[in-house]
Amino acid sequence: MPSAHYFPLELHASDDDQDCEEQEQLVDTDHRSSMLSNQYNLHYHPQLADYDNDNRTTELGMGMAPRLSRPGSSRRRYWLPMLIIASFCVIFYLMFSSQALGLGGSFNDGDDDFEPHSGQGKRWVPFPYQVSEFKFLTNEHKIENQNSSSSHALNESLHICSESHEDRRLYMQDKPHSAYAQLPVIYFVTPTYPRREQIPELTRLAHTLLHVPRIHWLVANDYERCDTYMDMLLNRFGIPFTHLSSPMPHKFRSTKPAPRGVANRRAALQWIRQHNLTNGVLYFGDDDNTYDLRLFSEIRQTQRVSMFPVGLIADYAVSGPVVRDGKVVAFLDSWVAGRRWPVDMAGFAVNLAYMSLYPNVNMPYKPGYEEDLFLRSIGLHIDQIEPRGMNCTEVLVWHTQTKSKKAPIVRLEKKFLDGRSNLGALFRSLKEMGVASVSDTEGPLATISKNGKGKAHSYFLS
Questions:
Q1: Does pTM surpass 0.70?
Q2: In the annotation, is 371 catalytic?
Q3: CATH H superfamily, domain 133-398
Q4: How far apart are CA 217 and CA 242, in angstroms?
Q5: Residues 45-96: pLDDT tens digits?
Q6: Which residue of the set 197, 201, 370, 371 is catalytic?
Q7: How far apart are CA 260 and CA 2, in angstroms?
Protein backbone atom coordinates (compact mmCIF):
# COMPACT_ATOMS: atom_id res chain seq x y z
CA MET A 1 0.00 0.00 0.00
CA PRO A 2 1.44 3.39 -0.85
CA SER A 3 2.71 5.49 1.97
CA ALA A 4 0.79 8.42 3.33
CA HIS A 5 2.93 11.55 2.88
CA TYR A 6 2.41 14.71 4.85
CA PHE A 7 3.89 18.12 3.94
CA PRO A 8 4.44 20.78 6.60
CA LEU A 9 2.56 23.99 6.12
CA GLU A 10 4.73 26.96 5.11
CA LEU A 11 4.16 30.14 7.05
CA HIS A 12 3.74 33.20 4.83
CA ALA A 13 3.72 36.86 5.76
CA SER A 14 0.14 37.98 6.23
CA ASP A 15 -1.41 40.90 4.39
CA ASP A 16 -1.57 42.74 7.68
CA ASP A 17 2.19 42.47 8.12
CA GLN A 18 2.75 43.87 4.63
CA ASP A 19 0.37 46.70 5.35
CA CYS A 20 2.29 47.48 8.50
CA GLU A 21 5.54 47.74 6.55
CA GLU A 22 3.94 50.06 4.00
CA GLN A 23 2.53 52.28 6.69
CA GLU A 24 5.84 52.50 8.43
CA GLN A 25 7.36 53.81 5.18
CA LEU A 26 4.74 56.56 5.07
CA VAL A 27 6.06 58.13 8.26
CA ASP A 28 7.75 61.47 7.63
CA THR A 29 11.54 60.98 7.55
CA ASP A 30 12.02 64.31 9.33
CA HIS A 31 10.57 62.81 12.49
CA ARG A 32 11.88 59.23 12.11
CA SER A 33 14.62 59.70 14.70
CA SER A 34 12.45 61.13 17.43
CA MET A 35 10.98 58.95 20.17
CA LEU A 36 7.57 60.37 19.57
CA SER A 37 7.56 59.51 15.90
CA ASN A 38 8.87 56.01 16.66
CA GLN A 39 6.00 55.53 19.04
CA TYR A 40 3.75 56.87 16.35
CA ASN A 41 5.07 54.28 13.88
CA LEU A 42 4.40 51.43 16.29
CA HIS A 43 0.77 52.36 16.74
CA TYR A 44 -0.01 53.55 13.25
CA HIS A 45 -3.27 51.93 12.11
CA PRO A 46 -3.52 50.93 8.42
CA GLN A 47 -7.11 52.11 8.14
CA LEU A 48 -6.03 55.69 9.02
CA ALA A 49 -3.22 55.87 6.45
CA ASP A 50 -4.87 58.13 3.90
CA TYR A 51 -6.26 60.54 6.44
CA ASP A 52 -3.06 60.83 8.46
CA ASN A 53 -0.75 61.31 5.46
CA ASP A 54 -2.84 64.23 4.27
CA ASN A 55 -3.15 66.02 7.61
CA ARG A 56 -0.09 65.03 9.61
CA THR A 57 2.14 67.89 8.35
CA THR A 58 -0.54 70.48 9.03
CA GLU A 59 -1.04 69.26 12.54
CA LEU A 60 2.66 69.27 13.34
CA GLY A 61 3.16 72.70 11.75
CA MET A 62 0.46 74.16 13.97
CA GLY A 63 2.16 72.76 17.03
CA MET A 64 -0.38 70.06 17.47
CA ALA A 65 0.71 66.78 18.88
CA PRO A 66 0.74 63.94 16.40
CA ARG A 67 -2.32 61.76 16.66
CA LEU A 68 -1.75 58.30 18.05
CA SER A 69 -3.97 55.38 17.14
CA ARG A 70 -6.49 54.23 19.70
CA PRO A 71 -5.42 51.43 22.08
CA GLY A 72 -8.17 49.15 20.67
CA SER A 73 -6.82 49.64 17.17
CA SER A 74 -3.30 48.72 18.20
CA ARG A 75 -4.58 45.62 19.88
CA ARG A 76 -6.38 44.66 16.72
CA ARG A 77 -3.18 45.11 14.69
CA TYR A 78 -1.36 42.91 17.18
CA TRP A 79 -3.92 40.13 17.57
CA LEU A 80 -5.00 39.75 13.94
CA PRO A 81 -1.68 38.23 12.73
CA MET A 82 -1.54 36.14 15.89
CA LEU A 83 -5.01 34.73 15.23
CA ILE A 84 -4.04 33.84 11.67
CA ILE A 85 -0.89 32.07 12.84
CA ALA A 86 -2.86 30.28 15.58
CA SER A 87 -5.42 29.14 13.00
CA PHE A 88 -2.65 27.61 10.89
CA CYS A 89 -1.31 25.84 13.96
CA VAL A 90 -4.75 24.42 14.83
CA ILE A 91 -5.31 23.18 11.28
CA PHE A 92 -1.80 21.67 11.22
CA TYR A 93 -2.43 19.89 14.55
CA LEU A 94 -5.83 18.54 13.56
CA MET A 95 -4.51 17.13 10.30
CA PHE A 96 -1.78 15.14 12.00
CA SER A 97 -3.61 14.21 15.18
CA SER A 98 -6.61 12.90 13.23
CA GLN A 99 -4.33 10.61 11.28
CA ALA A 100 -2.64 9.39 14.43
CA LEU A 101 -5.96 8.62 16.09
CA GLY A 102 -7.34 6.84 13.06
CA LEU A 103 -10.01 9.39 12.20
CA GLY A 104 -9.20 9.86 8.57
CA GLY A 105 -8.20 8.04 5.44
CA SER A 106 -9.79 5.31 3.39
CA PHE A 107 -9.01 1.78 2.36
CA ASN A 108 -8.19 0.81 -1.18
CA ASP A 109 -9.51 -2.69 -1.70
CA GLY A 110 -7.50 -3.17 -4.84
CA ASP A 111 -4.13 -2.58 -3.18
CA ASP A 112 -2.45 -5.86 -2.31
CA ASP A 113 1.08 -4.58 -1.82
CA PHE A 114 1.03 -3.00 1.60
CA GLU A 115 3.58 -4.18 4.12
CA PRO A 116 2.83 -5.71 7.53
CA HIS A 117 3.44 -3.78 10.70
CA SER A 118 6.77 -4.57 12.31
CA GLY A 119 5.50 -3.97 15.81
CA GLN A 120 8.02 -1.25 16.58
CA GLY A 121 6.68 1.76 18.37
CA LYS A 122 3.30 0.12 18.79
CA ARG A 123 0.69 1.58 21.09
CA TRP A 124 -2.88 0.70 21.98
CA VAL A 125 -5.31 3.06 20.30
CA PRO A 126 -8.98 2.16 20.88
CA PHE A 127 -11.01 2.11 17.71
CA PRO A 128 -13.72 4.74 17.42
CA TYR A 129 -17.29 3.62 17.92
CA GLN A 130 -17.93 3.09 14.22
CA VAL A 131 -15.43 1.42 11.95
CA SER A 132 -15.76 -0.41 8.68
CA GLU A 133 -12.71 0.32 6.53
CA PHE A 134 -9.08 0.11 7.59
CA LYS A 135 -5.62 0.95 6.32
CA PHE A 136 -2.76 -0.87 8.03
CA LEU A 137 0.72 0.35 7.17
CA THR A 138 4.27 -0.17 8.43
CA ASN A 139 5.62 1.33 11.61
CA GLU A 140 6.78 4.32 9.56
CA HIS A 141 3.20 5.31 9.04
CA LYS A 142 0.02 5.60 11.04
CA ILE A 143 -2.95 3.25 11.32
CA GLU A 144 -6.04 4.77 9.83
CA ASN A 145 -9.68 3.84 9.59
CA GLN A 146 -12.79 5.34 8.14
CA ASN A 147 -15.94 5.73 10.17
CA SER A 148 -19.13 3.88 9.33
CA SER A 149 -21.71 1.92 11.30
CA SER A 150 -19.89 -1.25 12.15
CA SER A 151 -17.83 -1.34 15.33
CA HIS A 152 -17.47 -0.44 18.96
CA ALA A 153 -14.20 0.16 20.71
CA LEU A 154 -12.55 -3.20 21.32
CA ASN A 155 -11.60 -2.44 24.91
CA GLU A 156 -15.08 -2.97 26.33
CA SER A 157 -15.40 -4.45 29.81
CA LEU A 158 -15.41 -8.21 30.34
CA HIS A 159 -17.67 -10.35 32.51
CA ILE A 160 -15.98 -13.62 33.39
CA CYS A 161 -18.53 -16.09 34.74
CA SER A 162 -16.13 -18.90 35.62
CA GLU A 163 -12.61 -19.94 34.72
CA SER A 164 -10.22 -22.83 35.20
CA HIS A 165 -6.61 -23.04 34.01
CA GLU A 166 -6.10 -26.53 35.40
CA ASP A 167 -6.12 -29.43 32.99
CA ARG A 168 -7.85 -32.25 34.89
CA ARG A 169 -7.77 -34.74 32.03
CA LEU A 170 -5.54 -37.69 32.82
CA TYR A 171 -4.95 -38.82 29.24
CA MET A 172 -5.20 -37.38 25.74
CA GLN A 173 -4.74 -39.70 22.79
CA ASP A 174 -3.40 -42.46 25.08
CA LYS A 175 -0.71 -40.19 26.60
CA PRO A 176 -0.65 -38.26 29.87
CA HIS A 177 -1.06 -34.52 29.40
CA SER A 178 2.46 -34.00 30.78
CA ALA A 179 3.79 -35.52 27.56
CA TYR A 180 2.54 -32.48 25.65
CA ALA A 181 3.98 -29.80 27.94
CA GLN A 182 6.18 -28.27 25.23
CA LEU A 183 3.38 -27.72 22.72
CA PRO A 184 1.99 -24.20 22.20
CA VAL A 185 -1.50 -23.69 23.58
CA ILE A 186 -4.46 -23.45 21.21
CA TYR A 187 -6.95 -20.80 22.35
CA PHE A 188 -10.19 -22.17 20.95
CA VAL A 189 -12.84 -19.41 20.86
CA THR A 190 -16.45 -20.58 20.70
CA PRO A 191 -19.21 -17.98 20.39
CA THR A 192 -22.57 -19.34 21.48
CA TYR A 193 -26.08 -18.14 22.29
CA PRO A 194 -29.08 -19.54 24.21
CA ARG A 195 -31.27 -21.83 22.11
CA ARG A 196 -32.66 -25.34 22.22
CA GLU A 197 -29.56 -26.85 20.59
CA GLN A 198 -26.95 -24.95 22.62
CA ILE A 199 -26.11 -27.51 25.30
CA PRO A 200 -26.15 -30.56 22.98
CA GLU A 201 -23.81 -28.82 20.54
CA LEU A 202 -21.42 -27.68 23.26
CA THR A 203 -21.41 -31.22 24.63
CA ARG A 204 -20.60 -32.67 21.22
CA LEU A 205 -17.81 -30.13 20.70
CA ALA A 206 -16.41 -30.77 24.17
CA HIS A 207 -16.00 -34.45 23.40
CA THR A 208 -13.87 -33.49 20.41
CA LEU A 209 -11.77 -31.09 22.47
CA LEU A 210 -11.27 -33.74 25.16
CA HIS A 211 -8.83 -35.41 22.75
CA VAL A 212 -6.82 -32.24 22.10
CA PRO A 213 -3.81 -31.58 24.36
CA ARG A 214 -2.72 -28.07 25.41
CA ILE A 215 -5.96 -26.28 24.67
CA HIS A 216 -7.82 -23.48 26.46
CA TRP A 217 -11.51 -23.24 25.60
CA LEU A 218 -12.94 -19.71 25.55
CA VAL A 219 -16.73 -20.01 25.55
CA ALA A 220 -18.40 -16.61 25.07
CA ASN A 221 -22.17 -16.67 25.63
CA ASP A 222 -24.53 -14.08 24.14
CA TYR A 223 -26.42 -13.74 27.40
CA GLU A 224 -27.05 -10.83 29.74
CA ARG A 225 -26.01 -12.82 32.81
CA CYS A 226 -24.02 -15.93 33.64
CA ASP A 227 -25.52 -19.32 32.88
CA THR A 228 -24.97 -21.53 35.94
CA TYR A 229 -25.81 -24.70 34.05
CA MET A 230 -23.09 -23.89 31.48
CA ASP A 231 -20.63 -23.25 34.31
CA MET A 232 -21.34 -26.71 35.66
CA LEU A 233 -21.10 -28.29 32.20
CA LEU A 234 -17.77 -26.71 31.26
CA ASN A 235 -16.22 -27.52 34.62
CA ARG A 236 -17.28 -31.15 34.36
CA PHE A 237 -15.16 -31.84 31.26
CA GLY A 238 -11.85 -31.00 32.95
CA ILE A 239 -10.66 -28.93 29.98
CA PRO A 240 -9.04 -25.56 30.85
CA PHE A 241 -11.75 -23.03 30.04
CA THR A 242 -13.04 -19.49 30.46
CA HIS A 243 -16.78 -18.80 30.41
CA LEU A 244 -17.58 -15.22 29.35
CA SER A 245 -20.90 -13.40 29.35
CA SER A 246 -20.77 -11.29 26.17
CA PRO A 247 -24.23 -10.10 25.06
CA MET A 248 -24.67 -8.42 21.69
CA PRO A 249 -25.27 -4.66 22.07
CA HIS A 250 -28.98 -3.94 21.94
CA LYS A 251 -28.74 -1.55 19.00
CA PHE A 252 -27.55 -4.41 16.76
CA ARG A 253 -30.26 -6.91 17.76
CA SER A 254 -32.89 -5.27 15.55
CA THR A 255 -30.68 -5.10 12.45
CA LYS A 256 -31.12 -7.60 9.64
CA PRO A 257 -28.90 -9.52 9.41
CA ALA A 258 -27.68 -9.18 12.97
CA PRO A 259 -23.90 -9.44 13.55
CA ARG A 260 -24.21 -12.68 15.51
CA GLY A 261 -21.10 -13.88 17.30
CA VAL A 262 -19.14 -10.63 16.95
CA ALA A 263 -19.55 -9.47 20.55
CA ASN A 264 -18.49 -12.95 21.68
CA ARG A 265 -15.31 -13.01 19.61
CA ARG A 266 -14.46 -9.43 20.56
CA ALA A 267 -14.77 -10.38 24.23
CA ALA A 268 -12.35 -13.27 23.66
CA LEU A 269 -9.89 -10.96 21.88
CA GLN A 270 -10.09 -8.56 24.80
CA TRP A 271 -9.48 -11.42 27.25
CA ILE A 272 -6.36 -12.38 25.30
CA ARG A 273 -5.17 -8.77 25.30
CA GLN A 274 -5.75 -8.33 29.02
CA HIS A 275 -3.74 -11.47 29.74
CA ASN A 276 -0.97 -10.24 27.41
CA LEU A 277 -0.83 -13.61 25.66
CA THR A 278 1.84 -13.75 22.97
CA ASN A 279 2.54 -17.50 22.90
CA GLY A 280 0.02 -19.83 21.31
CA VAL A 281 -2.47 -20.01 18.47
CA LEU A 282 -5.89 -18.41 18.16
CA TYR A 283 -8.73 -20.27 16.44
CA PHE A 284 -12.41 -19.36 16.12
CA GLY A 285 -14.43 -22.58 16.40
CA ASP A 286 -18.22 -22.40 16.26
CA ASP A 287 -20.22 -24.83 18.40
CA ASP A 288 -22.09 -26.32 15.42
CA ASN A 289 -19.04 -27.26 13.31
CA THR A 290 -17.49 -30.69 12.92
CA TYR A 291 -13.71 -30.94 13.45
CA ASP A 292 -11.20 -33.53 12.33
CA LEU A 293 -8.64 -34.08 15.10
CA ARG A 294 -5.87 -33.61 12.54
CA LEU A 295 -6.90 -29.96 12.28
CA PHE A 296 -5.47 -29.21 15.71
CA SER A 297 -2.09 -30.71 14.86
CA GLU A 298 -2.06 -28.60 11.70
CA ILE A 299 -2.97 -25.23 13.20
CA ARG A 300 -0.61 -25.66 16.15
CA GLN A 301 2.28 -25.13 13.70
CA THR A 302 0.98 -21.71 12.58
CA GLN A 303 3.75 -19.09 12.39
CA ARG A 304 1.64 -16.13 11.24
CA VAL A 305 -1.70 -17.07 9.66
CA SER A 306 -2.61 -20.52 8.37
CA MET A 307 -5.59 -21.27 6.13
CA PHE A 308 -7.43 -24.39 4.97
CA PRO A 309 -10.71 -25.36 3.24
CA VAL A 310 -14.03 -25.47 5.10
CA GLY A 311 -16.68 -27.88 3.86
CA LEU A 312 -20.43 -27.31 3.41
CA ILE A 313 -20.10 -23.57 2.73
CA ALA A 314 -22.75 -21.87 0.57
CA ASP A 315 -23.23 -22.63 -3.13
CA TYR A 316 -19.91 -24.39 -3.78
CA ALA A 317 -20.13 -26.49 -0.61
CA VAL A 318 -16.54 -25.42 0.11
CA SER A 319 -14.58 -22.27 0.81
CA GLY A 320 -10.82 -21.97 0.95
CA PRO A 321 -7.53 -20.88 -0.62
CA VAL A 322 -6.31 -21.64 -4.13
CA VAL A 323 -2.74 -22.95 -3.89
CA ARG A 324 -0.06 -23.15 -6.58
CA ASP A 325 3.49 -24.35 -5.95
CA GLY A 326 2.83 -24.39 -2.22
CA LYS A 327 1.71 -20.74 -2.11
CA VAL A 328 -1.75 -19.25 -1.69
CA VAL A 329 -2.52 -17.25 -4.83
CA ALA A 330 -6.30 -16.70 -4.65
CA PHE A 331 -9.50 -17.88 -2.99
CA LEU A 332 -12.49 -20.03 -3.90
CA ASP A 333 -15.76 -18.81 -2.37
CA SER A 334 -19.23 -18.36 -3.82
CA TRP A 335 -19.68 -14.95 -2.15
CA VAL A 336 -16.82 -12.54 -2.81
CA ALA A 337 -18.60 -9.19 -2.28
CA GLY A 338 -15.42 -7.16 -2.48
CA ARG A 339 -13.76 -9.04 0.38
CA ARG A 340 -9.99 -9.20 0.19
CA TRP A 341 -10.06 -12.34 2.34
CA PRO A 342 -13.20 -14.31 1.34
CA VAL A 343 -12.82 -17.09 3.89
CA ASP A 344 -14.98 -18.68 6.56
CA MET A 345 -14.38 -17.98 10.24
CA ALA A 346 -13.35 -21.61 10.76
CA GLY A 347 -10.90 -21.49 7.84
CA PHE A 348 -7.88 -19.81 9.45
CA ALA A 349 -5.73 -19.71 12.59
CA VAL A 350 -3.49 -16.92 13.89
CA ASN A 351 -0.27 -17.06 15.86
CA LEU A 352 -0.59 -14.84 18.97
CA ALA A 353 3.00 -13.59 18.72
CA TYR A 354 2.21 -12.29 15.25
CA MET A 355 -1.15 -10.84 16.31
CA SER A 356 0.47 -9.02 19.25
CA LEU A 357 2.34 -6.83 16.75
CA TYR A 358 -0.98 -5.18 15.92
CA PRO A 359 -2.41 -3.30 18.91
CA ASN A 360 -5.49 -2.31 16.89
CA VAL A 361 -6.67 -5.84 16.15
CA ASN A 362 -10.42 -5.71 15.76
CA MET A 363 -13.53 -7.48 14.54
CA PRO A 364 -16.22 -4.95 13.60
CA TYR A 365 -19.98 -5.35 13.73
CA LYS A 366 -20.38 -5.72 9.96
CA PRO A 367 -22.26 -8.91 9.02
CA GLY A 368 -20.50 -10.94 6.35
CA TYR A 369 -17.24 -9.01 6.65
CA GLU A 370 -16.06 -10.08 10.10
CA GLU A 371 -13.33 -12.42 8.80
CA ASP A 372 -12.16 -10.00 6.13
CA LEU A 373 -11.82 -6.97 8.38
CA PHE A 374 -10.27 -8.98 11.22
CA LEU A 375 -7.55 -10.27 8.87
CA ARG A 376 -7.01 -6.75 7.56
CA SER A 377 -6.58 -5.50 11.11
CA ILE A 378 -3.53 -7.75 11.55
CA GLY A 379 -1.86 -6.52 8.36
CA LEU A 380 -2.04 -9.86 6.55
CA HIS A 381 -0.33 -10.17 3.18
CA ILE A 382 -1.12 -13.03 0.83
CA ASP A 383 2.53 -14.11 0.78
CA GLN A 384 2.39 -14.74 4.53
CA ILE A 385 -0.45 -17.29 4.43
CA GLU A 386 0.52 -20.86 5.30
CA PRO A 387 -1.66 -23.44 3.50
CA ARG A 388 -2.59 -26.43 5.68
CA GLY A 389 -4.43 -29.67 5.04
CA MET A 390 -2.09 -31.11 2.41
CA ASN A 391 -1.82 -27.80 0.56
CA CYS A 392 -5.54 -27.22 1.03
CA THR A 393 -6.55 -30.47 -0.64
CA GLU A 394 -8.22 -31.90 2.48
CA VAL A 395 -11.25 -30.69 4.39
CA LEU A 396 -10.54 -30.82 8.13
CA VAL A 397 -13.50 -28.73 9.33
CA TRP A 398 -17.13 -28.85 8.24
CA HIS A 399 -19.74 -26.15 8.61
CA THR A 400 -22.42 -28.54 9.82
CA GLN A 401 -25.41 -26.62 11.12
CA THR A 402 -28.21 -27.84 13.31
CA LYS A 403 -31.59 -26.59 12.19
CA SER A 404 -32.83 -24.51 15.04
CA LYS A 405 -36.39 -24.94 16.28
CA LYS A 406 -38.34 -23.31 19.02
CA ALA A 407 -38.21 -25.11 22.36
CA PRO A 408 -41.56 -26.91 22.76
CA ILE A 409 -43.98 -26.73 25.67
CA VAL A 410 -45.39 -30.07 26.82
CA ARG A 411 -48.73 -30.18 28.63
CA LEU A 412 -48.08 -32.22 31.72
CA GLU A 413 -49.74 -31.66 35.05
CA LYS A 414 -47.13 -30.34 37.43
CA LYS A 415 -48.61 -32.23 40.35
CA PHE A 416 -47.24 -35.41 38.78
CA LEU A 417 -43.71 -33.98 38.50
CA ASP A 418 -42.72 -34.95 42.00
CA GLY A 419 -40.58 -37.81 43.21
CA ARG A 420 -42.98 -40.55 42.10
CA SER A 421 -41.19 -40.80 38.70
CA ASN A 422 -38.17 -39.53 36.83
CA LEU A 423 -40.15 -37.02 34.77
CA GLY A 424 -39.92 -34.20 37.27
CA ALA A 425 -36.13 -34.21 37.41
CA LEU A 426 -35.87 -34.85 33.65
CA PHE A 427 -38.00 -31.87 32.64
CA ARG A 428 -36.33 -29.62 35.17
CA SER A 429 -33.00 -30.45 33.52
CA LEU A 430 -34.45 -29.90 30.03
CA LYS A 431 -35.77 -26.51 31.10
CA GLU A 432 -32.34 -25.50 32.47
CA MET A 433 -30.79 -26.39 29.14
CA GLY A 434 -33.47 -24.53 27.21
CA VAL A 435 -34.59 -27.70 25.40
CA ALA A 436 -38.22 -28.02 26.57
CA SER A 437 -40.58 -26.96 29.34
CA VAL A 438 -43.87 -28.15 30.80
CA SER A 439 -47.21 -26.47 31.44
CA ASP A 440 -50.56 -27.44 32.93
CA THR A 441 -52.49 -25.73 30.13
CA GLU A 442 -50.26 -25.14 27.07
CA GLY A 443 -48.84 -27.44 24.43
CA PRO A 444 -49.70 -30.96 23.27
CA LEU A 445 -50.87 -33.34 25.96
CA ALA A 446 -48.11 -35.72 27.04
CA THR A 447 -48.89 -39.32 26.14
CA ILE A 448 -47.26 -42.32 27.81
CA SER A 449 -47.51 -45.75 26.19
CA LYS A 450 -47.14 -49.36 27.22
CA ASN A 451 -47.40 -52.44 25.02
CA GLY A 452 -48.04 -50.18 22.04
CA LYS A 453 -51.02 -48.48 23.63
CA GLY A 454 -50.96 -44.83 24.57
CA LYS A 455 -52.47 -43.65 27.80
CA ALA A 456 -52.82 -40.30 29.47
CA HIS A 457 -49.92 -39.68 31.81
CA SER A 458 -52.29 -39.63 34.75
CA TYR A 459 -52.99 -43.33 34.11
CA PHE A 460 -49.42 -44.26 35.11
CA LEU A 461 -48.58 -41.47 37.51
CA SER A 462 -51.66 -40.99 39.64
A1: no
A2: yes
A3: Spore Coat Polysaccharide Biosynthesis Protein SpsA; Chain A (3.90.550.10)
A4: 6
A5: 333 334 344 444 444 344 444 444 445 555 556 667 777 777 777 666 555 4
A6: 371
A7: 34
